[in-house]
Amino acid sequence: MNTPTPLRLDDxxxxxxxxxxxxxxxxxxxxxxxxxxxxxxxxxxLLIYALYACQERLRLSADSLAQADHDLEVWRNQVVLPxxxxxxxxxxxxxxxxxxxxxxxxxxxxATEVNAExxxxxxxxTQISCLPHDLPAPNRMNAAIQETVHRVLNHFTHRHHELSAxxxxxxxxxxxxxxxxxxxxxxxxxxxxxxxRPPHQDAPHCPPEERKTNPQC
Length: 217
Known about the structure:
The protein is built from eight helices and no strands. By secondary structure, it is mainly alpha-helical. The chain has one domain. Helix 4 packs antiparallel against helix 5 and helix 6 packs across helix 7. The longest helix has 29 residues, at 99-127. It is globular and about 60 Å long.
């Protein structure tokens, strides 16, 4: 990261984090984010950052998006992705260890992964003030959100050329449409207080036999 994240832990709770919680709590957004993450290698933190900038009527160009992605690369590769890999590896338990014990550790890893994503969002929140204002007409907000989602998807498919064919996957199209629709609904109606809770932390507690089939476990 080119500039430090906020020094106080209290600063980790910022407008971008609150937007992330609100968006992630909208119907269908959590599983749709997982589809884009697994199919296209999308960094969900960057997707949320781009949508927040759009909601705040700030212009996030393709170059600015690429710079933010570059700034997060070390943190993502050294912290977020290793935590995620361990969490996913432990889905079905660990041989020779009681499931209750390995699952307890896995839940701590899951919470730490959320904390790592919160640090990434805290950095991105410091970059919001650098973005120029963009004032799309109110009747263009829905289109602007759609364009933002596709800009992020195109960025990641250019990064991961081998995944570009996944853009034509109907599941990916539905996921992108769901996220754009709910981002627009959030912009129009505001957050649902009942839905504002950290990602992953309200995921279902799944028995081992469901772990391989339920991506939200």
